[in-house]
Design brief:
Elements: H1 3-8, E1 13-17, H2 23-32, E2 36-40, H3 44-51, H4 62-70, E3 74-77, E4 88-91, H5 106-118, E5 123-127, H6 135-145, E6 155-159, E7 178-182, H7 185-196, E8 202-205, H8 208-239, H9 243-250, H10 274-283, H11 290-300, H12 302-316, E9 325-329, H13 344-354, E10 358-362, E11 368-371, E12 374-377, E13 389-392, H14 401-407, E14 410-413, E15 428-431
Parallel strand pairs: 1-2, 1-4, 2-3, 4-5, 5-6, 7-8, 9-10, 9-13, 13-14, 14-15
Antiparallel strand pairs: 6-7, 11-12
Helix pairs in contact: 5-6, 8-10, 8-11, 12-13
């Protein structure tokens, strides 16, 4: 029986390489479809917890992991030998930026080397990690082909961008349409057979390059539009206008407008990172991606804008930022999750500290935080009157903003989290 038949009959053995925010939910969903799945990760603690039937990711209930482990459909290991026993390997490793904002593809390269050592006839390899257009074809394919196996005949290679939105209770792995680009037509069919077994809608594209570009377009669209609305917020303040009022009114137009909202900056593993992969790639082709660069400049500057607003608001109360006690609400990069990767709250805290403020934070999802030499713990929401300013950076749904408005003297709301709660509030409220 060939790999296509085993995939269609759910008899294939699948390894998900990388058991993080993308890999673990994917592995669980594949196991639920009846496949024998192994989560491969070099982090021994992740392996131990999966084998114990535990989840370390908020979006995945531990009971789901335990159920698939008990059914012997889900396994975990740090032994790369499992790749040699797998019919399909899906690579889900992080692809961050380095200090110069260039793509750091070292983890994909390491994963490719590991897979290449265990590549065998009939195997399907799919990359889900974000990268630049051409990477799968120009880098992965030559390395895997060194085995002497021929792509599309002896092994199959595809790119299918991850579309994980942490904290989203509506769009999960199964019901989020899946884009797939194969290196050859047989590669496309093999990848579609795998994903079609546990995802409702498959979206084929003509090549791995096109699939890679799809991912970058999705998040560049968001980054550029967020950059635009962040600049609109700055403009509105200069003009003495309410940013949120303007956006909400514009959003009533039933055509030709899509509302985006300002904030303290961009965070997470996609929006601040992915557009830079595209910009970097275009630089190699002597093209300057102006929208991306400008949006990145605006978005990365928003934490400084927030800190200046704090300083201005304190100044209006005859207080200096230096020596003032400032409590930041929320350090995760988005609401109702524990992920602090690229979170603008970290920059806000560091800039406040650099300007002499006494800083602390409250986040129900992040009990501890390290900022360089500073080790912080989430402060309880009590004695709010003792803080000179409370800054809402992440608008978690389980935070009592009404209480904050009732007890704190000054609130800077960067997320409009206090909308509809301000009547009769003790606090003076300043919005982004």
């Amino acid at each position: 029986m060939n790999v296509l038949d085993r995939l269609r009959k759910h008899e294939a053995r699948v390894t998900v390489l990388g058991a993080g925010y993308v890999g673990l939910p994917l592995a669980v969903e594949i196991a639920r479809a009846g496949f024998d799945v192994t989560a491969f990760d070099t982090d021994g603690e992740k392996v131990r917890r999966i084998e114990a039937g535990q989840s370390y990711i908020k979006d995945i209930d531990g009971a789901e992991v335990a159920r698939e482990v008990a059914a012997k459909r889900l396994h975990a290991t740090s032994d790369a030998a499992v790749l040699g026993q797998s019919d399909a390997v899906v690579i889900c490793v992080p692809t961050p930026l380095n200090k110069t904002k260039d793509p750091d593809i070292s983890l994909i390269l390491d994963a490719t080397e590991t897979v290449a050592k265990h590549l065998h006839r009939g195997q399907l390899v799919v990359l889900e990690s974000t990268t630049y257009p051409g990477f799968t074809r120009e880098v992965m394919l030559p390395r895997l082909s060194q085995s002497g196996l021929r792509v599309g005949e002896d092994f199959f290679l595809a790119f299918s961008p991850e579309r994980v939105d942490p904290g989203n209770e509506v769009w999960r792995v199964r019901n989020t349409p899946k884009v797939i680009g194969g290196t050859t037509e047989p590669c496309q069919r093999a990848a579609a057979a795998l994903y079609g077994a546990f995802i409702d809608t498959i979206v084929p594209v003509s090549s791995t390059d096109a699939a890679e570009m799809v991912k970058l377009l999705e998040n560049t669209f968001r980054a550029v539009n967020i950059g635009l609305v962040n600049e609109i917020a700055i403009m509105c303040r200069r003009l003495g206008l309410g940013t949120w009022e303007v956006i909400d009114a514009a959003a009533t137009k039933p055509f030709g407008f899509m509302p985006f909202y300002p904030g303290p900056g961009l965070g997470g593993h996609c929006i601040p990172v992915d557009p830079q992969y595209l910009s970097w790639k275009l630089k190699t082709l002597k093209y300057h991606a102006r929208f991306i660069e400008m949006a990145g400049e605006i978005n990365s500057g928003m934490p400084q804008v927030v800190v200046q607003l704090v300083a201005d608001a304190l100044n209006d109360t005859r207080k200096a930022l230096r020596g003032s006690r400032v409590l930041v609400i929320g350090v995760a990069y988005k609401r109702d999750i524990e992920d602090v990767r690229e979170s603008p709250a970290l920059d806000v805290l560091e800039f406040l500290h650099a300007r002499g403020a006494e800083i602390a934070y409250h986040d129900p999802y992040v009990p501890e935080l390290r900022l360089g030499p500073l080790a912080l713990r989430s402060e309880p929401l009590d004695a709010l009157a003792s803080w000179d300013c409370v800054v809402v950076v992440t608008n978690h749904s389980n935070i009592d903003y009404r209480r904050i408005l009732a007890e704190a003297p000054l609130v800077l709301d960067t997320r409009n989290a206090t909308k509809g709660l301000r009547d009769g509030a003790r606090a003076r409220v300043v919005c982004l």
